[in-house]
Design a protein that fits this description.
Blueprint (H helix, E strand, L loop, with lengths): L1 E2 L6 H9 L9 H10 L1 E5 L4 E3 L7 E7 L1 E8 L2 E9 L3 E3 L12 E4 L3 E7 L3 H7 L1 H60 L2 H9 L5 H17 L7 H17 L6 H9 L4 H54 L8 E3 L1 H11 L1 H6 L2 E6 L7 E3 L1 H18 L5 E10 L2 E8 L29 H11 L3 E7 L2 E9 L3
Parallel strand pairs: 11-13
Antiparallel strand pairs: 1-2, 2-9, 3-8, 4-7, 4-9, 5-6, 5-8, 10-12, 13-14, 14-16, 15-16
């Protein structure tokens, strides 16, 4: 940077600043007061003026040129605003901002006039009109910055929701494709199997026996509660039996029979009833029926999972309802929020414990807003257990005429020296790009709008947010 008045003399600087619309109506004597105490700085294009974390210690008046203000999100710089000729930025009177939240770069060769904050006390006392203009600028800047940050928070929340939904939808969607392809391949062999079946010479009582056996197993369904060891032992027994009875490549057949709770006794009974000649063809028909039913069931289960996820998102966003207060079951909101964040629960190896009062009455609330509360707190809890896993415990209870919800995690905890600041706007302990510091501030606003309270207790291994909401608004 180059400093000095070599390129513009004192009077030229005064006239240049006075010509800017932002300072219209300010007495020329006050502008001269500023110019006498400040300095002119030349900044070549491409140079960084300040970086995130630098002290905000000077008023900036852009005489000529263009600055780009950028924030870093997800490892990339995103432009937040521009400072162009005639703009006033940097430190402002009465502003509590102490350090830069982003980075500034010169887009073109620029000339900027600066005034150190050391002169602000005298400025406020002696230059009332300038001070009023600068305070108004500060108010506008806070409003614009808040709007940008709120928008960023919404986009980040939407990104998390989209990523989680895509992850959760991928597995059932892949299962549908896989099962549909297998079913198509399986049905391609049906003509040959049908030929064997219709050529069988069997009696009505034999058909009834087979129908009762097979469709009785189908009604019972696949045994999903059986232990893996018991299942493997029974599958090995079926494989040995099939091999002993002349079935060479019988692994898939044994697996299908095991799925539907067949055992060696069932096969002995079927072979005895059908006879040596017809048994192979009938077993082929049994395999065909069970395999088809299994694949259809997999498609049905995967489709139901997708439907459940879509309904969860619809319930979560309440996109088909107004934002008015209505009778609300908080457990529905908690459950749909957990469903949306399930991918993160599994990824971080977190166990969820639900200690819910089952006879909890409905409360007057905005369901969509409460879902934002649950999402922000639960998402933060999962982040706290990202490295080592842990337990997320959600407890609901009626306390007098209030609904109390405790959300606890076994993560690393919130340091005691910052616990009083966690609800402040833009305060965050997360890495750049992972948070804007508005999540808990939004939570507090929503809770207060519902005439409720929120409290924090935290130490390493035990952090609890207690939300208390009145039953009636």
């Amino acid at each position: 940077m180059k400093t000095g008045f070599a390129i513009m003399n004192h009077q030229e600087i005064v006239e240049r600043i006075a010509s800017f619309s932002v300072l219209e109506g300010v007495p020329i004597s006050q502008i001269e007061w500023i110019v006498e105490r400040g300095e002119l700085v030349e900044i070549p294009a491409g140079e960084q003026i300040f970086k995130r974390g630098d002290s905000i210690d000077r008023l900036l008046i852009m005489l000529d040129g263009l600055f780009s203000l950028k924030v870093q999100q997800a490892g990339q710089f995103k432009e937040l605003a521009q400072i162009k000729t005639g703009d006033v930025s940097g430190a402002l009177p009465y502003s509590r901002a102490q350090s830069a939240t982003g980075h500034a770069f010169a887009v073109t060769d620029s000339k900027v006039f600066t005034l150190s904050v050391d002169h602000f006390y005298d400025l406020i006392c002696e230059c009332h009109e300038v001070t009023a203009v600068l305070v108004h600028l500060m108010t506008d800047r806070v409003r614009d910055f808040s709007r940008f940050q709120h928008q960023s928070e919404k986009l980040m929340a939407l990104g998390k929701l989209s990523a989680g939904l895509a992850h959760e939808l991928n597995n059932p969607a892949a299962a549908i494709v896989r099962s549909a392809e297998s079913l198509e391949k399986h049905l391609g062999t049906v003509p040959d199997k049908l030929k064997k079946v219709i050529s069988m010479e069997i009696l009505d009582d034999q058909i009834d026996f087979v129908n009762n056996l097979v469709f009785g197993k189908l009604r019972q369904g696949i045994n999903k509660t059986e232990s893996m060891i018991a299942r493997a032992d029974r599958e090995d027994e079926l494989t040995d039996w099939l091999e002993d009875n002349g079935y060479g490549d019988c692994y898939m057949l044994a697996e299908t029979l095991a799925d539907y709770r067949f055992d060696v006794a069932d096969l002995d009974g079927l072979k005895e009833r059908m006879g040596e000649k017809e048994f192979p063809s009938m077993l082929t028909w049994v395999d065909n029926v069970l395999t088809t039913e299994k694949m259809v069931g997999e498609i049905k289960d995967a489709s139901k999972r997708i439907s459940t996820l879509v309904n969860s998102v619809k319930e979560y966003s309440h996109m088909d309802r107004s934002g008015d207060y209505e009778p609300t079951d908080i457990h529905i909101g908690l459950r749909t929020t957990l469903s949306i964040l399930n991918h993160k629960v599994k990824k971080n190896q977190v166990t969820v414990e639900e200690n819910w009062q089952t006879d909890m009455p409905k409360m007057a609330a905005s369901p969509g807003e409460l879902n934002q509360v649950w999402t922000n707190i639960i998402d933060n809890a999962l982040d706290a257990m990202e490295e080592a896993g842990g337990t997320l415990t959600i407890t609901t209870k009626m306390v007098g005429d209030n609904v109390r919800v405790n959300i606890s995690d076994t993560g690393k905890g919130i340091p005691k020296d910052i616990q009083d600041r966690i609800f402040e706007p833009f305060f965050t302990t997360k890495d750049i790009g992972k948070g804007t510091g508005l999540g808990l501030e939004t939570v507090q606003q929503i809770v207060e709008n519902h005439n409720g309270t929120i409290k924090l207790q935290s130490q390493p291994g035990n952090t609890t947010f207690e939300i208390c909401l009145p039953l009636k608004h």
